[in-house]
Amino acid sequence: MTEEISNRLQRVEANIAHLEHLVEQLNAVIIEQGKVIESLRRQTHQQATTLESIELERIKATNPKPPHYQ
């Protein structure tokens, strides 16, 4: 009986070690994905700002001031 309990305990410990390793791997993936997401957010914000500036310049160019404002 003791040998059976010992074997079961070893299997449980091996499973726990395996699960701890998987958790560490998943944590590393999550951290990397967080970095990628933050980078994409910055790029999206920069592109939106650039696009807004371009659109404002286009609007100004197509709508000249009336002669009495010049």
Write up this protein.
It is a single chain. With 70 residues, this protein is an all-alpha fold. Helix content is 87%, strand content 0%. It is built from 1 helix and no strands. The longest helix is centred in the middle third of the chain and has 61 residues, at 2-62.
| Total count of helical runs of at least 4 residues | 1
Helix content: over 70%
Total number of beta strands: 0
Order of helices and strands: H
Global morphology: rod-shaped
Low-confidence runs of at least 5 consecutive residues: none
**Gap between N and C termini:** 100 Å
For the sheet with most strands, the description reads:
none
- Strand composition percent: under 5%
**Arithmetic mean of pLDDT:** 93
Q: How does the helix and strand content classify structurally? A: mainly alpha
Radius of gyration: 30 Å
Please name the defining characteristics of this protein.
rod-shaped, mainly alpha, 0% strand, 70 residues
In short:
The chain has 70 residues and is mainly α. It is built from 1 helix and no strands.
